Amino acid sequence: MDKPILQVALDLVEMKRAIEIAEEAIKGGADWIEAGTPLIKSEGMNAIRELKKKFKDHKIVADMKTIDTGAVEVEMAAKSGADVAIILALSNDATIAEAIRAGRKYGCEIMVDLINHPKPIERAKELEAMGVDYVNVHVGIDQQMIGMDPIEVLKEIVQSVNVPVATAGGLDAERAAVCVSLGAKIVIVGSNIVKSR
Predict the structure, then answer these.
(1) Which of the ends of the chain has fewer CB neighbours closer than 10 A, N or C?
(2) How far apart, in whole angstroms, are the C-alpha atoms of residue 64 and residue 51?
(3) CA-to-CA distance for 34 and 68, rounded, in angstroms?
(4) Nearest to residue 73, comparing CAs of 98, 107, 39, 43?
(5) Rounded Cα gap, residues 49 and 100, in angstroms
(6) What structural domains does the chain harbor?
(7) Which CA distances in Å does 49 have to 52, 56, 77, 143, 167?
(8) In 84-149, where does DSSP find H-type helix?
(9) Residue 111: closest CA among 77, 143, 80
(10) Contact 127, 121 (CB under 8 A)
């Protein structure tokens, strides 16, 4: 991963609007397209299929937020066209191990999201040892509302692991640049693109 990756999270509920935003984001330089959790919950695996059909030259990320049945959910995402599936770091190790196995079997990389984990640095090291492809330092929308910031933890995690580190949580262009300067290889932008006009 020579240059940083810009991943656009389509955290909305309408497929038509998600495709419009993805088209604009790609024109603006986005590398990876994420079927956000609200889109997957609203549209099911069809969200992933539609994005893969429309944007076959881009990596499609499925933010499954899996916390159980890792193998089943990764298989579902992969067979629908996902190149990367997102699992929660709060999951049991067995769930993550099964997700990794399914990912290898079906050609889908595994990103593990550290959202809400009480010990993100320690967990990132454990996840790397388990064989995940990416870890994501993520501050959720509700956490952002009370002032939490992914940048606080990012630097320490980047220094603690060798797998590529993604970061997400209220990032605009300026804050995304700070994350890259701290070593983030993937910058995930959602609301700042989805809500822009």
Answers:
(1) C
(2) 15
(3) 21
(4) 98
(5) 21
(6) 5-195 (3.20.20.70)
(7) 5, 10, 9, 30, 25
(8) 93-106, 120-130, 141-145
(9) 77
(10) no
Cβ neighbours for 82, distance < 8 A, ≥ 6 positions apart: 35, 48, 52, 60, 61, 62, 108
138: Cα separation from own chain's centroid:
9
Tell how strand 32-35 and strand 59-66 pair up.
Answer: parallel
C-alpha to C-alpha distance for 13 and 187, rounded to whole angstroms: 22
- List Cα–Cα distances, 112 to 33, 57, 100, 174, in angstroms: 17, 23, 10, 25
Token digits of residue 140: 């959720």
Region at 45 (left for phi over 0; alpha for psi -120 to 50; beta for the rest): alpha
| Residue carrying structure tokens 């609203």 | 42
Give the residue among 125, 188, 136 at the shortest CA–CA distance from 162: 125
169 residue type, one letter = G
What pLDDT does residue 194 have?
A: 53
Residue with tokens 């196995």: 101
Q: Is 29 helix (H, G, I), strand (E, B) or coil?
A: coil
Mean pLDDT of all residues in 13-19:
97
- Backbone torsions φ then ψ of 153, nearest 5 degrees: -100, -25
pLDDT one-digit tens code per residue, 63-114: 999 999 999 999 999 999 999 999 999 999 999 999 999 999 999 999 999 9
Determine whether 93 is exposed, middle or buried from the number of CB atoms within 10 Å of its CB (0-12, 13-18, 19+): exposed
